[in-house]
Design a protein that fits this description.
The chain has 72 residues and is α+β, with helices and mostly antiparallel strands. It is 51% helix and 14% strand. Strands 1-3-2 form a 3-stranded antiparallel β-sheet, with helices on one face. A hairpin with a 7-residue loop joins strand 2 and strand 3. Helix 2 packs across helix 3. The longest helix is centred in the first third of the chain and has 15 residues.
C-alpha cells in the first residue's frame, strides 16, 4: 500500500473520531483488515509516517496503556 494513502486514511480516522481531534488508538490489525493488506505493511507505514514527522505517537499513562497516534 502506498504510504500517502495510509496517511490519508489514518488522518481521516483521527479527525472523525472527536469533535476536536486530539488522538486515537489505531489497531494495525483492524486497518489491515479494512484495507485488505498485510499487518506488517500497516505497521511499517505507520512507523515511517512517525519517523517523517507526519504523525506523532505516545503511550497512554492509564490503563489500557495503548499506543496512540496524534496529528502534529
Amino acid at each position: 500500500m502506498e504510504k500517502e494513502n495510509l496517511y490519508q486514511y489514518v488522518h481521516t480516522m483521527i479527525t472523525s473520531s472527536t469533535h476536536r481531534p486530539k488522538y486515537m488508538s489505531i489497531s494495525s490489525v483492524k486497518v489491515a483488515d479494512l484495507l485488505g493488506i498485510a499487518v506488517s505493511e500497516v505497521e511499517n507505514g505507520l512507523h515511517e509516517l512517525v519517523m517523517e514527522g507526519r504523525l506523532q505517537t505516545s503511550k497512554l499513562g492509564q490503563p489500557p496503556n495503548c499506543e496512540i497516534y496524534l496529528l502534529p
